[in-house]
Specification:
The chain is α+β, with helices and mostly antiparallel strands. Helix 3 packs across helix 5. The protein is about 15% helix and about 25% strand. Strands 1, 2, 3, 4, 5, 6, 7 and 8 form an 8-stranded antiparallel beta sheet that branches. The longest helix has 8 residues. The chain binds a DNA duplex through strand 3, strand 4 and helix 5.
Length: about 200
DNA sequence: CGTTGGATTGGCT
DNA sequence: GCCAATCCAACGC
């Protein structure tokens, strides 16, 4: 399986994000089990963006985000959840793409063991659900996706750009004018369904 | 040093 | 739909 090269990541997050849809994240667990999943939902962040961890400058937590592209930036939030990002841009720039949802391909049994019994479509449908299923935590912060042996990205089947939908980011209360969430509109494994396009009649609420 | 709130989730009303 | 869980990074004094 061909890995995505460093050059793929060394571009602005807004450019990399939509191209990550359809690519495959692979994982080798300590016991040798191979996990993989097809990316269906991501969000772009950069340092000019008030919603980004990098907006307030380089800190111990965001150090990886400002470093070499093609590495994993992993952070802890809400006292219990891990989320993972792909670092993008040139070294010195604080940009990354949050991995939010995927369709499980290999290792369903191991994922289910970590997440508890659930329909496969819910296994990786959310950033913290995905890290839990993949066993990703703070130890993976800074992992090299281009050359590392624990987690990496393989080229997947191309998704036509007209099937990649753009929406506002989830859980982000600032910079809402930046529609930087990208999803495979045909996927049933999203963390949130796409906003319904009303056919004609206005909906009650 | 104390305070605040978060790129979330799952369980309950 | 609402909210608690549960830790810690970032910021203010």
């Amino acid at each position: 399986m061909a890995r995505l090269p460093r050059a793929f990541f060394a571009r602005p997050s807004l450019e990399v994000a939509p191209e990550l849809i359809g690519q495959v994240l692979a994982r080798r667990l300590d016991d040798g089990t191979r996990l993989s999943a097809r990316i269906v939902e991501v969000e772009a962040y950069d340092e000019l963006d008030p919603a980004s961890h990098s907006f307030r400058g380089r800190t111990p937590r965001t150090d990886v985000m400002f470093g070499t592209p093609g590495r994993l930036y992993v952070y802890f939030t809400y006292g219990m959840h891990w989320c993972m990002n792909v670092v993008t841009g040139r070294a010195g720039e604080g940009s990354a793409v949050l991995l939010r949802a995927a369709e499980p391909l290999e290792g369903l049994e191991a994922m289910t063991a970590r997440r508890g019994p659930r329909p496969p479509r819910e296994l990786l449908a959310g950033p913290a659900r995905w890290t839990r299923a993949f066993g990703i935590d703070g130890r993976d912060d800074g992992a090299d996706l281009v050359r590392g042996a624990a987690v990496w990205l393989e080229r997947g089947e191309r998704v036509p750009s007209d099937r990649v939908a753009v929406t506002a980011r989830i859980g982000v209360t600032v910079a809402t004018e930046r529609p930087w969430r990208f999803v495979d509109a045909a996927s049933r494994c999203l963390s949130r369904p796409l906003p319904r396009v009303s056919p004609s009649a206005p909906r009650r609420r």
